[in-house]
Task: structure prediction
Amino acid sequence: MRIPKLYVENAEKHEGRKVVIENNGKVIRFLDKDEEYSGNGKVLYQVIYDDFDKYVLMGEVTKDMLIEYEVGGVKQLTYIKKGTRLLEIPAEGYKVYPIVDFGCRILEGHRLAALQSRKGDIRFVNTPVNGIVVFLKEVPAKRENYVFYILPEKEIKFEEELYNN
Amino acid sequence: MRIPKLYVENAEKHEGRKVVIENNGKVIRFLDKDEEYSGNGKVLYQVIYDDFDKYVLMGEVTKDMLIEYEVGGVKQLTYIKKGTRLLEIPAEGYKVYPIVDFGCRILEGHRLAALQSRKGDIRFVNTPVNGIVVFLKEVPAKRENYVFYILPEKEIKFEEELYNN
Result:
């Protein structure tokens, strides 16, 4: 599979490519390599896709981000605003075989990964919610360890918020 | 699930909303209800999402189209150019239970639907390619009948093209 491109607002280190978001996402404008921009839109800079999790803190996206995924003549863009909450689902085992990947829309109960124990038993990690997989992180650890970042269809509420409403 | 919005170039019947594609997809601009546009970009008009298959002929997309899918603060856009080839996979049976839906990225061998026979036996329809499900059509018929429209990661080649290359 191709690796998606990730653009982030106010990225510290950034490569050449830029994209501008105007009017709260109504206009999305990719800039040429040396193109200057003088409007009042938000400028997002390309960063390394594998750094996705640096822009997520306690399950909340900390900066506006745009994911660009292009295959053949088809471009898929996902614009995630700062403050959006993601669900992080870990999959750890002796062997872990991810079943879904970036961009997969998943429905409640779908399998995310197969876990194999040392004895060879297979169990599955399922998703508790409908949503979209926006990132799959491989965590360096003794046992195989992945984290699925899922954008849920229904916004996540924390417990104290539920009590207040 | 929410229903995605579909925008199509030169749509005959169209509703109010419009989106403009400039510079071969480098700028995507959603217009306000009464906003006029005078540039030289392609104007796509909103049509009914369920009419998706009217813009596909012999597996080829006949007009530029944009699919907009918005959940919470997140907007997902898929821009499909005219001439893009889609794979149509039918699922027919006494009972058909679709497993994936619009927007699901699928990897070779994933299950698309479960088919139940009159005797209760279950079989699965799998995808032969990696790709994205862009539309799911329910075909009115005596038995339950669905068609999955899949955008493959690798471009589809017809046989005569393979011989010529």
